[in-house]
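The freezer alarm interrupted the setup, so I double-checked each line after restarting. Inputs confirmed:
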Amino acid sequence: MGVVWCPDWPVVSWGVPLDEPAAVFVANRVVACSPAARDEGVVIGQRRRDAQGRCPDIAVLDRDVDREGRLFEPVAAALEALTPRIEVAGAGLVGFPTRGPSRFFGGDAALAERMVECVGPVLAGRGDARVALADGVFAARLAARTTEAMSGPVVLPVGASPAFLAALPITTLEQPELTDVLLRLGLDTLGGFAALPAGDVVGRFGREGRQAHRLAGGEDEHPPDLRRPAPDLAVTWQFEPSATRIETCAFAAKALADELHAALSADGLACIRVAIEAETDAGEQHVRLWRHEGALSAAALADRARWQLDGWLLMARTAGSERAGPGPSAVGEDAAMDAGIARLTLIPDEVVPASGRQLGFWGGRAERADDVTRTVARLQGLLGPEAVTVPEWRGGRSPAEQITLIPAAAVDLGEERPATSATWIAEPWPGRVPDPPPARVLADPPLVAVVDVVGRPVVVDGRGEVSAEPAMVTIDRTVGVSAWAGPWPADERWWDPLHLRRRARLQVVLEDGSAHLLMVEQQAWYLEASYL
Amino acid sequence: MFDTGRMVVGTDQLDPALLEQLRPVTLTGEQLLEVPEPLLPLFPWGGIQRGWSVGVAGDGAWSLALAIWAEALGVEGWVAVVGAPDLGLVSASTLGVRLDRLVVVESPPSGEWSTVVASLVESFDIVAIDPAGPIGLRDARRLSARVREQGAVLFHLDGGHSWPSALDLTLTGCSEGWEGIGRGHGFLASRRLAIDAIGRRTGRPRSTSVLLPGPGGRLAVSG
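Predicted 3D structure, all chains:
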């Protein structure tokens, strides 16, 4: 297998120049950063505050898997000059079987050079890409990781992959549950694990352990005697009229994915590689393979089909609008093209017996999550993808900042989501109003009046003291204050004079029994939240 | 002599956490959603009947709703919140609602409103609504029937103001004072809340008093 890996893809897909520090965060942790940020000491897994401490002018980007997926298509398409059988393993990682192409281009080394030549112009200096050839996908991916940025491709000779893997630490498997046990058993390299007899591994660690064992030994995750699915498992959607907008395609993709997933599960199969085929009005055929290490869930299938179609629509559009321009760097948000997509087909390319691990112990959890996912998808079709959201923790001082809502389409509702647990944010932010948090947080805080006993507006001075005791508050009507506490001053973004915000917060209990959190900024009072 | 290592024990001697896991988790067959213990005086029959419409009003209304969801949903239930962008999710989490079982739906256009709520009750255990305007009688009837048929519970965050007919149960809070805050010192720590429950299916009105929030931010018995 040969692979091309773009290590900084989540940042590159945002179009950030290489020399600008930027990082993509998920739930306040760095998941990818630009080379400039890396030079300043930003590393993957770092907390957002620490990253901003190292590099104050870092651009903070949200993870956008849809963007990553659809913008990756040009990179995959560039490799089509070498072989038709391109397999996308995820945004940023693409591979293909090299036996045929290698013979054609005169050896592995020559092929690797060609891969660099193909991918280089598409990335056009926007990011780093690493090329490696090895016996299996896993070995090739790890080999790509060991290369330095653009230092040239790594080519492991046929049969050398097990020896290459043997020296690597066991944690490269990225299966903490398994590798913790192995480490305790004293097996700290892939070689040590691979040397165990397969039968013993199955006996102790089950089928997932055996899959990891195969990887450690340089084999593919699943044995080669995979069952090929019957051709009637392919599902097709005819667009009448042909689709030019991604919304239309996404709807079809979702429906097809559900249908395919249901058909496969009925046969006790799970799909690990799917071929996504589209035919345009003009009769052009596009095919791309997507692989997933586990098994593709219905939602994951739909996502990949949507990214792929979006990628094709995007390429068609850039090709149409700027034939002279070499790189598809322009990102249009509004998807429309001259030649529409007439037919979409999903073909399960490789299937394995379903391990059933997506089912909960009682069969309940996964089914419920599937039900919920279906309903959510239906509502997204009706109201738009942004209309249905799920919460995730972020750091912040105000009640509105601490949790953010992300589109439900961006997560798998059936999976564990650590960022929904309050323990995700380890430390409280300084300047935070003490708990308990208010049950009503106004998305758009209205202006209110806060006056003292003689009717003068109450102000908060530079040292964070109130000018007088607040006596009356006017929200809808004017009510007397029976108790109050604060102010809690908070200077936000103090490192950035343009965005510096000096605010202070006050808790009040009114004579009608209601309690509120008021916020003052530049002498104007706002109702930020109510303890409803 | 006969040391079998383990004794056979009655279920009452087993670890309650273990029993909780052994209990079937699909709630569809069960007709009652559990309520937090401090609220049991309001629910002599044990909980909220599936298929009901429940309104929350007055002081602490939303905290009360959140505290009930936390118990009613357990570990497997799902809740959808429609058209209530102001609902405090940090508070939800503090009161014990699992955020990975919560979905927020933006306020749908009025023409789609009942379609959206009707599809949510199919797969969510609790659907919370805060309609922007009055709901027509026909829509309300159709939705009520759907909620009963699917065994969901519809929570009216506006106390049922926009609903054209009576609710099965309305809980109204009345603050009896905050602890921990003075005039210019301390902070809001806990609130004593009197709650009245009335409903067309619940017999005589009932009331109780709780701490919401109590110590640690959770619902607690008033004592």
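Quick read of the result. Chain A touches chain B through 58 residues (CB under 8 Å).
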